[in-house]
Here is the input.
Amino acid sequence: MPASTRARSTVSRRDFARLFAVGGSAALFSSPAWAREAGRAPALPQGVPASEADWAAVRAQFVMPPDLTVMNAANLCPASRPVLEVLTRETRSVDEDPSPMNRARLYPEKEQTRRALAEYLRATPDEIIITRNTSESNNLVSNGLDLGPGDEVIVHADNHPSNLQAWHAKATRYGYTVVVVEQRNPHPGMAYYVDAFTRAMTPRTKVLAFTHLSSTVGDLFPAAELCRVARSRGVLTLVDGAQTFGLLDVDLAAMQPDFYTGSAHKWPCGARECGVLYVRADVQARLWPTIYSAYPGATGFSRSFEGFGQRDEATMIAFREALAFQTTIGRAAIEQRARALAAQLLSGLAGLPGVRVWTTPTPALHAAVVSFVPGTLDAGRLATALYERDRIAITTRGGQDRPGLRVSPHFYNSPAEIDRLLAALGRYLKTGV
Here is the structure.
């Protein structure tokens, strides 16, 4: 990806008008992805904040109907028009001509996506593995490390199952021990978790596996500090980035994890069934492949680790398009937008009677995932009513662990949509569902 497409914190209305055609695809994205590797977009100026008109132009690049509000980015995001166009075009191309000659051009396309991922995460292409999603990436790590009796793996109780249950299941098979650091609610602060994970480490600890941002209530963890402490003790770190990749301006060069994972279908707004696994160069020799097949990558660790067999290159090319789309808008601007929407929601929820908010209101400790209990209302019935009557899609959280509703807005959402959700919640709290 050329330097001109690197993240910008702000954008101007003039450049948005030029880059995004409201209600349709921009001319910027009209040519095939493989035909425009250089000069993807003009450089965006710095120092001019985007207006609501600019964000409306961005929203028009998604095919969701204008009257439908979807705030469920922690689970699944829509792909933008540019991503859909590339995905459709590349899928059709292979189905129209599945010959080896036509498909031969797709192999270097995968490597272009690897380079784009490396630049996006501030890593090197030799450290990037293209997977199907975060769950597969997490399991490639827990499957690939040599662990056995006498070894310990430290996890957090609020990890995703692919980074929690997976370790327990493999501990039963291989005989190592899993140590669980319990979650605290509300968020007890970064220093608490640095201390808790540090105290849990022993000379037997081999791996520290934690979630960068929890999918339950949106707690943010001190990733760089935890990686630093673990590294000083010779402990490997696996950072589950499912909820930060594409939301926060993640810098792996600064964080310095040994492994970092993410999915295209969440915050990056890419195609489904595509993800990333970062494996730091210094630890690659310690990770065994668990899948042996054809079609490995062409550079670095991917040559020995990424032989996953027949792949869907269309999703990989679309993945690169999603990264380019975000980079054109400005990664810092996207993060600021999502954080601002979450802060607006938290402020509004604080004024609703009977609502219990699980997510901390402290800005430094959360990002754009907000969970709460809607008073005495049944969360499932309320979510259904919001979708069917108000055209607002959020999700429920069941079970005993901080149940209720979860809202995860992204850059394609607006302050007006947050206000609409708050008004609907207030109405149902008064009238019932």
